[in-house]
Amino acid sequence: MQQAATPPPEAGDAPPKQVAQALERLGEAGRLIADVRLGADRLLEALFFVASEPHHQQSSRCLNLICKEETLMRQHLENLRTIGRQLEESGVLNDSLRSRSNSWGLHMPLVCPDGAVVAYAWKRQLAGQAGASAVDRTRSKRRFFPHLADDSTVESAAKKLCSSVPSNSQEELGDQRSVSDILSHLEKEIPNLKTFTYQRLDWFKRASALSSAANESSIELSKDHGFPSTTKLRQESASNHATDKAAVIELLLPSLFRAVISLHTAGSIDPDAVALFSPDEEHASMALQHFICVNPESALHSLLHWICSYRTLFTKVCSKCGKLLLMDKQSGLILPPVRRPFRNFSASNKTSAKNSSTESCSDLDLVLAFHISCFSDRA
Amino acid sequence: MPIKWILHWQPNAGATVNTQIHTELSQCAESLNGVKEGRWKATLSFYRAMVREQANANEFPRDFLGISLVEQPTKYYLVIRGQRLVVEAESSIQMIMEKLQSYKMRVALNFEGNQYQLGDFRLRVGKVVLAHSEGLRGIVMEMEYLPISSWEKSHQIMGEFFDLWQEALSKSSLPGHFVHIEPNFSEFGLSDQYTSQHTAVQYATIMAQMISTAQSVQRN
């Protein structure tokens, strides 16, 4: 069990030390989140087991284990909260950032040059909602209490709950095993799309550069080449494409939007968090969790394609009301259709890859768009 | 930078513009959950060439405009609409022209009013007054959409917002309506990416209508 005992932050720390401290705490937070996930998995497996076989002789043991696991989980979440507070105190989570957006984030670019607000989904991760998403992961992973004899029952219960995985998508993705493969394919499919990858620390620099530039003239931002540090970062990211130590992917569709995806471990293709401009940040994160649940191996591929379906954000009318703009009742803002359904989303469009020059082909028409209230109102 | 539509108020035949209309427009922006952000001001000046010989006067453009915009405090924009010319200069050009006695300012107009934030949209409702004068000569509106900087890509969404705005206004039964004229930016050598020069050209384009409105106000 981890004890989060760190010295109080000093105001006079040089920036590199602060960065190192912040990164260390984030790493710790990441480990705690992994513990929370494992614990939640175990809890749910046990619950399913008990629910399906209430009179099994092992069930009382199961219940004891559930209680013990619950205590552990509480401790992990408490430690997470402590780390969150420390990050806030050390200024990594900043008041001015918080007031400008609806979420507290870590040196994230707040105002995209071509997207209203980027809301970072780190908030969700650090608040322990990773535990909630364990429900989905349970359905697709093998986790069980090793000392339970009848693990085959648990496995079949889990399989019953699993959503059907499209079997053809695996073959199509056969040649897209690494981040650079996926991104190169994506860039070929979607015209004007630019992708960048960064190692964790490079992203930190990039994000703070973007965030400080957002306060200056936005003319600088709208031309990417006008950015003094961009060229250098691009050269680094070009090599990142090859070495695949990428931890953060940035998607840019000029004049449309910028999205940021974090990968779980550097170099892997497991997406962990996503930041996409949106007045309700829930939607992108839910999409991410859904793709991970349905098929973890193609999650990044599906997520990137789903994000790119937003390239019609300012042109595709809402499939329910037929208009482009609508006053959203909850936020009181006039918005375009910012919801793209992800439940039956299929990124396997082989035909569209061949006809990438004619963007008006059917794959764009198939992805529907909705306003927030139209999305929740639809039958 | 974000794209912007400049609209001018066209009063109905026989009607005039007054401060009441301006107040109603501001209230309409607030009714769409607009958050008042402060005041804004722009200036537009008509210049006349100073020529020694009157005979040469016709060689010089009559519609030489100078525009200062609030978002570019250090710049001054010069437009000759007839020749499709727009230039971005330092604001010191005004002083230079004065010292050289090459061009003299004939008339200056001030646009001033309140600025409202409506989510990703920014509205500026402004009164048009002659410099050093009180009388209201017209009304302009700036309609800005922050997420998009491409003129082409923004067209559909701006059109819909304009319709939304007109619809909201129709409830107040005002004696007039806003008109949007779209200049041909490529004739001015401007690209699809929006800049303050596009704004200057839009202001220059609505001037003919603004002048006739101002004259009809003066007649009444």
Automatic annotation (TrEMBL), chain A:
The keyword Nucleus applies. GO terms for molecular function: transcription coactivator activity. One of its GO terms (cellular component) is mediator complex. It is found in: Nucleus. Keywords: Nucleus, Transcription, Transcription regulation. One of its GO terms (biological process) is regulation of transcription by RNA polymerase II. Belongs to the Mediator complex subunit 27 family. PANTHER family: 34 KDA TRANSCRIPTIONAL CO-ACTIVATOR-RELATED, MEDIATOR OF RNA POLYMERASE II TRANSCRIPTION SUBUNIT 27. This is Mediator of RNA polymerase II transcription subunit 27.
TrEMBL record, chain B:
The gene is MED20. Its main location: nucleus. It comes from the Eukaryota. Belongs to the Mediator complex subunit 20 family. GO terms for molecular function: transcription coactivator activity. It is found in: Nucleus. Component of the Mediator complex, a coactivator involved in the regulated transcription of nearly all RNA polymerase II-dependent genes. Mediator functions as a bridge to convey information from gene-specific regulatory proteins to the basal RNA polymerase II transcription machinery. Mediator is recruited to promoters by direct interactions with regulatory proteins and serves as a scaffold for the assembly of a functional preinitiation complex with RNA polymerase II and the general transcription factors. Component of the Mediator complex. InterPro entries: Mediator_Med20 (IPR013921). The lineage of its organism: Eukaryota, Viridiplantae, Streptophyta, Embryophyta, Tracheophyta. It holds the Pfam family Med20. Keywords: Activator, Nucleus, Transcription, Transcription regulation. This is Mediator of RNA polymerase II transcription subunit 20. GO terms for cellular component: mediator complex.
